[in-house]
Amino acid sequence: MIVCSCNVLTDHDVRSALNPDGGNARSAGEVHRCLGCSRQCGRCMHTIRKIMNDTGCSAAHAHAHAHVS
User: Which family does it belong to (predicted)?
Assistant: First the structure.
């Protein structure tokens, strides 16, 4: 599904930016940066945050794992 119509990003693109092998984004803004684009209208931010929460990649979750290593 298209998550960001301004940058034509799909939910798969967002998940790849959250994957440690893909981008390890910790916030909705970092998702755009990892994918080589920038936020335009901002309507996608809620959906990106929802995907992050659904996949367990919230900022707090990612931050906690960064200090475990």
Answer: Belongs to the Bfd family.
